[in-house]
Specification:
The complex is a heterodimer of chains A (392) and B (98). Chain A is built from one helix and 29 strands. In chain A, the strands form eight sheets. A four-stranded antiparallel β-sheet of chain A has the order 3-2-1-29, with no helix packed on it. A four-stranded antiparallel β-sheet of chain A has the order 9-10-11-12. Chain A has one domain: 7 Propeller (Methylamine Dehydrogenase, Chain H). Chain A is mainly β. In chain A, a hairpin with a 2-residue loop joins strand 10 (139-144) and strand 11 (147-151). In chain A, 1% of the residues lie in helices and 39% in strands. Chain B has 98 residues and is α+β, with helices and mostly antiparallel strands. Chain B has one domain: Roll (Ubiquitin-like (UB roll)), CATH 3.10.20. Helices cover 22% and strands 19% of the residues of chain B. Chain B has three helices and five strands, in the order βαβαββαβ. Chain B has a five-stranded mixed β-sheet with strand order 2-1-5-3-4, with helices on one face. Chain B is globular. The chains are: A mainly beta (392), B alpha+beta (98). The interface between A and B is medium-sized, with 24 and 27 residues.
Amino acid sequence: MSGVRVLVGTRKGAFILTGDGKRKQWNVSGPHFAGWEIYHMKGSPADPNRLYASQTSGWFGQIMQRSCDGGKTWETPGGEVMPTPGSMPAGQSNKFVYDVSRETGKPLTTHQWYDGTQHPWEFKRVWHLEPSPTDPDAVYAGVEDAALFRTSDGGKTWQELPGLRGHGTGPKWQPGAGGMCLHTILIDPKDAKRIYVAISAAGAFRSDDAGKTWKPINQGLRSQYIPDPKAEVGHCVHRIALHRSRPNVLFMQKHWDVMRSDDAGDSWREVSGNLPTDFGFVIDVHAHEPETVYVVPIKSDSEHYPPDGKLRVYRSRKGGNEWEGLTKGLPQQDCYVNVLRDAMAVDSLEPCGVYFGTTGGQVYASADAGDSWAPIVRDLPAVLSVEVQTLQ
Amino acid sequence: MIRVVLPPHLRTLAQVKGEVQLDVPGRVTRGAVLDALEARYPMLRGTIRDHVTERRRPFLRFFACERDLTHDPPDAPLPEAVVSGAEPFLVIGAIAGG
């Protein structure tokens, strides 16, 4: 019996939506971590019952949560109540310290601040968690201020991969409106040493040695606010997606422009084509069709809602340029929600299911690859992230 | 025993109801109370003060005996009423947000 588990992070807690194989009947559990911002939740491909969640708060900072039973119960790894104090170290699961050690780290330099001055790196929160495809205890974490961390002990401790922050272009990185965040982590399904990340606003980077060294991959991106067309970094990349059968082909939703690369990011070309606007946040690829791509166009960088008050997913079956609006079941008047960058996902059932969440608290699902949509829930807090697990 | 009152979110995180009671060896200072609290409840580490610098998180304050102790040095002795257990040590979250 197959089914899906939709992991939804919101401004006020986490929700788990469990559906049958037809994706018609849903059970909703939550809120988990009520009242806290849940930036992201994701399950381990190696053990679907192992889930990780990033729980954050302006008052209390970062908390990491882990479930070993598919989200029924949760724990802070290594944070169990100590009957007798003294068995330290414990309670390190939310300790994200940039590596400035002489042996393994990089000096803690500065990045560009909103006013153009330089500003020191400061950890704020975890935006994205990417579990290893093969090891349930190994997870990458993309954080604000932008850096990449990794755990190999199930989230008890985290170590920075400092080659990225120390790439040398850091003084030119700058925060977008949401902060200077590392929000996208893609592990090449055919080569675990190849990792892609994206940072707002620095751009996309690739490592071919499991995160030790990094190369900016931003050639071909054009941004109005960057006069130099060959600028190595500085672009506000919102999201990157790939299909597991063809990991050298990348699709990107940039601040403005939908982009495509056929050479692992070495060069990019625009594939916005006939989209009503090419601003947006999410982008994803059909589970079975590597040339079928989904985006949700948003009116502009200053008006974060769908054009004309009509919520439309756009699908290209040709890898970009030619897009069709998908509207069946989606509100086509007076809709002014946003769809944030981590809030779209696909399942791997047949036909492919597509899911996205809105800042209005709706989570929409399509069980027919986008042809029609229905809300699973309508009134959650603002949705920050959506991930899907296909359960067999 | 030292009595500590945590804000609701931290009580949930620590899986406690009501006040926390702690043995605090030696001089009873704010730093010593927080050390004992974090040793007993490691999941609270980093939520009240920074892991490395031990600086208070900006939206939290410390009160006892109707006094704001937030800006007292962390090694200053707490009021005798806290030491004796007559009054609790309060960790208060700022009233803010939506």
